[in-house]
């Protein structure tokens, strides 16, 4: 018998293989007994094979980007394809303060280094600036306005170039550096007074032999090394050149959220003399600290390095934008980009980008502007990137689990278990992303597996978008769901929460009326709980069931029942699997998901004939209005017809029982689109 | 267990004067060697079999109490029964002599399936430096 190939790293299997070999090739017999001398030899052989195989496996794994596990190796492999992993990022805040009562002072300089103390959660953080800021003094008054300060400690390091040394390296001593704050200045010698600023580059496009530039690379222990030119690519440093590298060592994302700052910096006048601290005003916060982040993780490097390489640092296709954006803005949880030609109507020459940041729902206008500027150095000339706020497509469930009370009669406990399982699913990557998909079968099986006492479940899915009303203005609204609607009834397939419109004193709701399989019309109506709807406007818009789009004609919405000027509009999806199309971000809404535990009398043996079994409707029981658990608008006289006494639940909805084509004369119409109306602002968010 | 011949390698790796092959040990000797290996192996020494061996080496530096003899006896006996299926009727007799810093361990057993008389392994442990 020949030796077999070792196909895994299992010691026992290696040992068995050696024993098998001995069994057929030797006249010794005692290899099967653990105490025998042969067993000792076999142990030694197997252990040797095991360690060799393990080391070979580890070494081979570390040779490839996909399988490497040590950060140094992952970074090194990424370096081979020109990728520099992101460093830690300082949290950045914006503050303002002024200095008054100055005499004989023409300019003031806020020196680089510590500027403020910022109060974070349970601790304080130091905020710095990487470069001096000089402002003029007018009538004894100087203002430092909207200054961007960086969380962390300002550090400066010096190197003297010694060309007699072979392979001299310029390694920054500290870990946790925010590399975007690195400033490198080079003087001809340590005693020289003037210096040249060197620019950090991440590729060699446009770099000449005289460019004052340097490259940065991550080395061991998450530290960084400066690499200067060789007179071919970038200017070469000369002997005795004196390098000063300053940077900020940061706590990363821990520094986010500081909102109150106190000045601890150093301000000097034009002569370099420090000014009296009593002349400095209190610091006002223009923007609390944000965007602090940890060093790029290994998994992120593995994901982005090949993608950035394939895009060659150029944003050409929409997926390039997604890669580049993840590279230049680390605070991205999910991103989608698509060309304007995909819009309806098309908007050529534009790329639309929607970003879900990690710590919030929307990007600030400031961040959007900044990102547009940074994207310009990657984008093709003539193509304008435009950021659009992401639009949430909410998925809500109505869950009816059947349970066997003989196995578990704690209904509340089971309900909590189902709720926890769904909450867990709601946080999964399946749904919370662009292009995400709510998978009905996954959710349903998850409910069944919560407890052995749950015998089955009947779960209904609805989708919802929030219409952000422009109050007091005439506006048209278009709300896209990106999923085909199901038209179960002739009307009330699409229902909403309440709002008021100009000319109508009561709370108004909207709903649809089916014209044909593809189209429907929107109508407005008032409704009192238990009564019948009173239609006040028959043609208030259209519904495209096939594409899942609702268009509301020009209307002046004055207030809404739900807080934040929101009208929630729900629809029944044609498919139970909900897809986030283009810029729609699928979000599983647990607050509007209901769980109704039902006893399975057949399984429990209480009623084996099934005569008393509680049947649950597998289809929707239509309602006139939407029932929502979202917070209601505060301080508003507007309340739904059946607002609960807690003030937090807007229960509504009588059951739709009969035909509701109640003819009613429109009391007021707001169809006029003249004047300032007719603007197409608005839409869902 | 049916009677059969046991043949193990000798760790001295001496050459057989006649066959020029490596010297082998057989039957009772092979089993006795195995018993000794089990007794002298420290727990955790054998790769991936942490329970293999006995505590006899570690016990050398323990305090001598009345429980010491019982514990060592039990440990050796259970190890032999677990890892040496060729022996049976195991009797372990441990005698600790605190005055001479010695521990004497006598293991008696019979071989399963072989008509050989009861075997005995005598182990005397004493410190090399007193």
Helix and strand topology:
The complex is a heterodimer of chains A (685) and B (130).
Chain A: H1 11-25, H2 37-61, H3 71-80, E1 92-99, E2 107-110, E3 113-119, E4 124-129, E5 133-136, E6 142-151, E7 153-160, E8 170-171, E9 177-187, E10 196-200, E11 213-219, E12 223-228, E13 242-249, E14 260-263, E15 267-269, E16 284-290, H4 298-311, H5 318-328, E17 332-339, E18 350-357, H6 365-376, E19 384-387, E20 391-403, H7 411-426, E21 437-438, H8 440-448, E22 454-468, E23 474-480, E24 491-496, E25 499-501, E26 508-514, E27 519-526, E28 534-544, E29 549-560, E30 566-571, E31 578-579, E32 584-588, E33 594-595, E34 598-599, H9 601-604
Parallel strand pairs in A: 10-11, 18-19, 20-32, 20-33, 20-34
Antiparallel strand pairs in A: 1-6, 1-16, 2-5, 2-15, 3-4, 3-14, 4-6, 7-13, 8-12, 9-10, 9-13, 11-12, 17-18, 20-22, 21-31, 22-30, 23-29, 24-26, 24-30, 25-29, 26-27, 27-28, 28-29
Helix pairs in contact in A: 1-2, 3-4, 4-5
Chain B: E1 7-9, E2 24-26, H1 27-40, H2 56-59, H3 66-83, E3 87-97, E4 102-111, E5 119-125
Antiparallel strand pairs in B: 1-2, 3-4, 4-5
By secondary-structure content and strand pairing, the structural class of chain B works out as alpha+beta
* Main interface: chain pair and counts: A-B, 19 and 26 residues
Multimerization status = heterodimer
Give the spatial strand order of the biggest sheet of chain B: 3-4-5
Rg calc of chain B: 16 Å
């Amino acid at each position: 018998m020949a030796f077999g190939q070792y196909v895994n790293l299992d010691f026992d299997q290696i040992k068995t293989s050696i024993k098998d070999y001995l069994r057929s090739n030797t006249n010794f017999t005692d290899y099967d007994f653990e105490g025998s001398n042969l067993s000792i030899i076999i142990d030694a052989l197997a252990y040797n094979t095991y360690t060799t195989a393990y080391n070979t496996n580890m070494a081979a794994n570390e040779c490839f980007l996909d399988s490497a596990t040590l950060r140094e190796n992952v970074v090194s492999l990424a370096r081979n394809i020109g990728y520099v992993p992101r460093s830690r990022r300082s949290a950045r805040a914006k503050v303002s303060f002024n200095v008054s009562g100055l005499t004989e002072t023409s300019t003031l300089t806020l020196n680089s280094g510590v500027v403020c103390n910022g109060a974070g959660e349970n601790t304080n953080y130091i905020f710095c600036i990487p470069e001096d800021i000089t402002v003029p003094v007018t009538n004894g008054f100087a203002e430092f306005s909207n200054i961007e300060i960086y969380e962390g400690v300002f550090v400066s390091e010096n190197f003297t170039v010694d060309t007699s040394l072979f392979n001299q390296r310029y390694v920054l001593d500290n870990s946790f550096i925010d590399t975007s704050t690195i400033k490198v200045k080079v003087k001809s010698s340590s005693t020289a007074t003037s210096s040249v600023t060197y620019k950090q580059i991440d590729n060699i496009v446009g770099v000449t032999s005289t460019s004052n530039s340097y490259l940065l690379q991550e080395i061991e222990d998450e530290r960084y090394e400066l690499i200067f030119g060789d007179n071919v690519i970038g200017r070469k440093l000369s002997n005795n050149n004196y390098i000063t590298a300053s940077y900020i060592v940061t706590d990363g994302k821990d520094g986010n959220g500081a909102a109150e700052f106190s000045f601890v910096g150093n301000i000097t006048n034009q002569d370099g003399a420090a000014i009296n601290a009593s002349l400095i005003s209190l610091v006002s916060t223009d923007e609390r600290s944000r965007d602090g982040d940890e060093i790029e993780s290994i998994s992120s490097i593995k994901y982005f390095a090949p993608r950035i390489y394939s895009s060659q640092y150029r944003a050409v296709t929409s997926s390039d934008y997604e890669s580049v954006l993840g590279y230049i803005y680390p605070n991205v949880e999910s991103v989608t980009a698509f060309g304007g030609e995909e819009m309806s109507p098309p908007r050529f020459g534009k790329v639309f980008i929607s970003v879900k940041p990690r710590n919030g729902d929307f990007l600030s206008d400031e961040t959007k502007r900044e990102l547009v500027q940074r994207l310009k150095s990657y984008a093709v000339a003539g193509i304008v990137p435009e950021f659009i706020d992401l639009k949430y497509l909410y998925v809500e469930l109505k869950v009816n689990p059947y349970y066997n009370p003989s196995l578990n009669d704690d209904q509340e406990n089971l309900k909590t278990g189902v709720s926890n399982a769904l909450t867990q699913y709601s946080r999964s990557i399946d749904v919370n992303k662009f292009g995400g998909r709510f998978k009905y079968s996954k959710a349903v099986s998850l409910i069944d597996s919560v407890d052995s006492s749950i015998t089955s479940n009947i779960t209904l899915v609805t989708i919802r978008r929030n219409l952000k009303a422009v109050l007091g203005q005439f506006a048209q609204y278009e709300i896209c769901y990106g999923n085909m609607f199901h038209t179960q009834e002739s009307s009330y397939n699409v229902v909403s929460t309440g709002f008021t419109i100009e000319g109508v004193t009561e709370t108004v709701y909207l709903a649809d009326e089916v014209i044909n399989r593809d189209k429907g019309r929107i109508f407005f109506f008032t409704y009192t709980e238990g009564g019948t709807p009173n239609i006040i406007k028959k043609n208030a818009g259209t519904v495209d069931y096939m594409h899942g789009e609702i268009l509301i004609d020009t209307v002046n919405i004055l207030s809404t029942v739900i807080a934040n000027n929101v009208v929630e509009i729900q629809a029944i999806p044609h498919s139970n699997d909900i897809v986030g199309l283009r810029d729609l971000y699928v979000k599983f809404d647990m607050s509007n998901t209901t769980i109704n535990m039902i006893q399975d009398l057949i399984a429990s043996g209480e009623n084996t004939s099934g005569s008393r079994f509680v049947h649950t409707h597998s289809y929707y029981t239509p309602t006139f209005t939407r029932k929502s658990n979202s917070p209601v608008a505060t301080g508003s006289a507007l309340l739904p017809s059946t607002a609960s006494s807690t003030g937090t639940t807007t229960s509504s909805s009588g059951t739709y029982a009969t035909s509701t084509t109640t003819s009613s004369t429109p009391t007021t119409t707001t169809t006029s689109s003249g004047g300032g109306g007719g603007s197409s602002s608005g839409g869902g968010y | 267990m049916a009677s059969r011949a046991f043949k193990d390698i000798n760790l001295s790796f001496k050459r057989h004067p006649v066959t020029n092959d490596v010297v082998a040990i057989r039957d009772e000797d092979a089993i006795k060697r195995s018993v000794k290996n089990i007794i002298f192996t420290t727990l955790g020494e054998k790769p991936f079999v942490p329970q293999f061996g006995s505590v006899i080496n570690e016990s050398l530096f323990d305090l001598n109490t009345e429980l010491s003899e019982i514990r060592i006896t039990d440990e050796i006996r259970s190890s032999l029964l677990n890892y040496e299926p060729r022996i049976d009727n195991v009797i372990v007799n441990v005698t600790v002599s605190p005055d001479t810093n010695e521990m004497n361990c006598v293991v008696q057993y019979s071989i399963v399936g072989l008509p050989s008389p009861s075997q005995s392994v005598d182990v005397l442990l004493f410190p090399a430096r007193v």
